[in-house]
Amino acid sequence: MNAIDAATTPPGKGGRYRWRVCALLLAATTLNYIDRQVLGVLAPFLQNQIGWNEIEYGYIVTAFQCAYAIGLLCAGAIIDRFGTRIGYALSIGIWSLAAMSHTLAASVLGFALARFALGLGEAGNFPAAIKTVAEWFPRRERALATGIFNSGSNIGAIVAPMVVPVIAVAWGWQAAFLFTGVLSATWLATWLLTYRTPERQPKLSPAELAYIQSDPAEPITRVPWATILHHRQAWAFIVGKFMTDPIWWFLLFWLPKFLHSTYGLSLLELGLPLIAIYVTADVGSIAGGWLAGYLIRRGWSANRARKGAMLACALCVVPIVFAANASHMWVAVALIGLATAGHQGWSANLFTLASDLFPRRAVASVVGIGGFAGAVGGMMIATFAGFLLQATGSYVPLFIMAGSAYLLALLAVHALAPRLQPAALGTNS
User: How far is CA 194 from the centre of its chain?
Assistant: First the structure.
């Protein structure tokens, strides 16, 4: 039995302050996705106003993905070096300014530059959040905490189509970008004023601190990337991200365009189906994290429980292959909603693999490298989607790719980490 399976609940949890920290992470992830989703919601309208075609829109999305990939490659190491408080602040400060800079864009190049800056800043969110969870939660609660903060990606995707069209129609599309940037800047001020690590947080009770630190002690020395990449466990996470993140990126940036072109929805009419899809995704995010913990409490090994939950999530994505030819919009919405729920449940468990398989000092770097791989995959699918849609106008091949990606990714994860044995980095690595 490994350390994950051997963990037992101490007599008392001593308080709930750690869940306030989780709420901060949830708010940050929500704002992260509101900021990046504004362009997707406005894309059908801006495509006509600015005059870009499908290929040029693909390039704009690719600019974001390219910067996101570069940022993720650097963000993990920066956060591991300077800590979550400063690292998170740098990230959200950059993306707040970048979100507001969209108001100055008036061409394909202008939007591409603004998206590039946004991608650089937003890249720090998930490495910082995962590392914060590793600092504030014992192993037995990390999947649930990750599922909760990761649900912010769906909340953001829900809020964006609720408020962005209304703001854009009332005050112009520039106001939508400005509004979301100001919200992110407000979170930054709150974070700097309130956040401390558990050891330095005066509002945390000694009992809760002891509960948070109830897992076996870990060395605090940093781990070089070369050491991380030497382990198959890292490649399990990297390959999983590379194969499945692009599906989420595709849906995030092309779903409004798909609904607009296929069912003729106007800017204001996009709100309800997008909200329905991402509400379903939000349920999937929390349920996916809960399911693995439930199975562990029922006596399943961590390996069997985590992969069982990931299999259930992967199967939920498969029916999306029928969405492109659905006869009714709400049938397509139901199929896509189920798939987004599956992705988010999958994502919660895949993120948790990083903290299951690696010590805290390496978590942000592992997540950053994996996120880089996912963003590279996102760059590839963005460019491919732009050329495919410009040439054929058909979403069928893209939805077939989406439906098959997760089962193939699970096979790869299992092949690389068949027992989910934590990586033996050693104290001097």
Answer: 24
pLDDT band at residue 218 under the 50/70/90 scheme: low
pLDDT confidence tier of residue 220, bands split at 50, 70 and 90: low
Question: Domain of 318: which CATH number?
Answer: 1.20.1250.20
Residue 343 belongs to a domain: yes
Scored b (16 or more CB within 10 A) or e, 88-124 reads bbbbbbbbbebbbbbbebeebeebbbbbbbbbbbbbb
With bands split at pLDDT 50, 70 and 90, how would you rate the model's confidence at 426? Answer: low
Tokens of 191: 């974070």
Between CA 163 and CA 41 the distance in angstroms is 10
If one counts the domains in the chain, the total is: 1
Q: Is 429 inside any structural domain?
A: no
- State how far the Cα of 207 lies from the Cα of 16, in Å rounded to an integer: 11
Per-residue pLDDT at 428 exceeds 50: no
Q: Tell me, what's the pLDDT at 353?
A: 87
Distance (Å, rounded) from C-alpha 209 to C-alpha 232?
33
Kindly tell me the sign of the dihedral angle through the C-alpha atoms of 402, 404, 407, 410.
negative
Q: Which of 178, 157, 428 is nearest to 271 (CA)?
A: 157
Burial of 13 (0-12, 13-18, 19+ CB in 10 A): middle
Query: Within a domain: residue 49?
Result: yes
Between CA 424 and CA 233 the distance in angstroms is 10
User: Are 24 and 14 contacting, i.e. CB atoms less than 8 angstroms apart?
Assistant: no
Q: What is the amino acid identity at position 11?
A: P
Q: Using the Cα atoms of residue 103, residue 28, residue 234 and residue 299 in order, give the sign of their dihedral.
A: negative
pTM of the model: 0.79
User: Could you give the residue ranges of the DSSP H alpha helices within 172-212?
Assistant: 173-194, 206-212
What burial class does residue 241 get, using C-beta atoms within 10 Å of its C-beta: 0-12 exposed, 13-18 middle, 19+ buried? Answer: buried
**Owning domain of residue 284:** 15-213+222-416
Is there a contact between 260 and 44 (Cβ–Cβ < 8 Å)? Answer: yes
Is 2 among the domain residues?
no
Q: Which single residue is written with the structure tokens 């791989």? A: 373
pLDDT tens per residue across span 60-107: 999 999 998 898 778 877 888 888 899 999 999 999 999 999 999 888
Give the position of tokens 């044995």: 421
